[in-house]
Specification:
- This protein is α/β, with parallel strands linked by helices and 264 residues long.
- It folds into two domains: 229 residues, TIM Barrel (Alpha-Beta Barrel); 29 residues, no CATH class.
- The chain has eleven helices and eight strands.
- An eight-stranded parallel beta barrel has the order 1-2-3-4-5-6-7-8, surrounded by seven helices.
- Helix 5 links the parallel strand 3 and strand 4.
- The chain is globular, with a radius of gyration of 20 Å.
- It starts with a helix and ends in an 11-residue tail after the last helix.
Length: 264
């Protein structure tokens, strides 16, 4: 069955775990989509993963639109969510509605915004405009400079309380789900038990309603920093390296192309 915003919400009510993975290109999205993943995320992680940026801050609206269009052509079953990059929604309500609307025109079915209580009014405005919104609190990579780097959030009583308030504020404003990134498991559990919408964890422990990871991380394709919360399901990098080296050797020694590869 095609995943939609309402049936993602229903999964929490039925106690069904939600699966979510990033996707940035047509070929990979095609494979992920037929594996039964509930949500495909065109994440601004495309910056470091796909384009080699140091972090997510340089990613532009145009870049996310490009990758959204590619993934949307592959997606048949999963719900497609697109990240809103830095400065695409912080400048004004008008800019936010326009840019989020462009994502839906490009094929996304929802957008994801980083921020808590402070963006509740914006979420309300987007929801009233017919744009489904996924929230994102905890470690918000677009705020790494104000957070002082990639650090676990919610470890003090004050920051824990702010996260819980933010989650409730986002729910009341109309988000259909919330990503919880890099928060202690007990904090994620408390939030999950106190909101009626799904929570999707990334480094948030076992009690969230679902989980999300970056596809390149679980495939062993990103050889940079690997966070503690990542589980590598296969190590493709050395396999690809081996295949490329074999190709180079075959071409240099005349073993490729062979007769079966030649037109007559």
């Amino acid at each position: 069955m095609k995943a939609t915003v309402p049936n993602i919400i229903e999964k929490k009510k039925r106690g069904e775990k939600i699966t979510m993975l990033t996707a940035y290109d047509y070929s990979t999205a095609l494979i992920i989509d037929r594996c039964g993943v509930d949500i495909l995320l065109v994440g601004d992680s495309v910056g470091p993963i796909f384009s080699g940026y140091e972090n997510t801050l340089p990613v532009t609206t145009e870049e996310i639109l490009y990758h959204t269009k590619a993934v949307s052509r592959a997606r048949k079953n999963a719900l497609l969510v697109s990240d809103m990059p830095f400065l695409s929604y912080q400048t004004s309500f008008e800019d936010a509605v326009r840019n989020c609307g462009l994502m839906l025109k490009a094929g996304a079915e929802a957008v994801k915004l980083e921020g808590g209580q402070e963006i509740a009014d914006l979420v309300r405005k987007l929801s009233h405009s017919g744009i489904p919104v996924m929230g994102h609190i905890g470690l918000t990579p677009q705020s790494i400079h104000s957070l002082g780097g990639y650090k676990v959030q919610g470890k003090t009583e004050d920051t824990r309380r702010k996260l819980i308030i933010s989650a409730k504020s986002l729910e009341e404003a109309g988000v259909f789900s919330i990503v919880l990134e890099c928060v202690p498991e007990d904090v994620a559990k408390e939030i999950t038990e106190n909101v009626n919408i799904p929570t999707i964890g990334i480094g948030a422990g076992r009690y969230c309603d679902g989980q999300v990871l970056v596809i390149n991380d679980i495939l062993g394709l990103f050889e940079g920093f690997r966070p503690k919360f990542v589980k590598k399901y296969v190590d493709l990098a050395p396999l690809i390296e081996g295949a490329v080296k074999n190709y180079v050797e075959d071409v240099k020694t005349g073993k490729f192309p062979e007769e079966t590869h030649i037109f007559s």
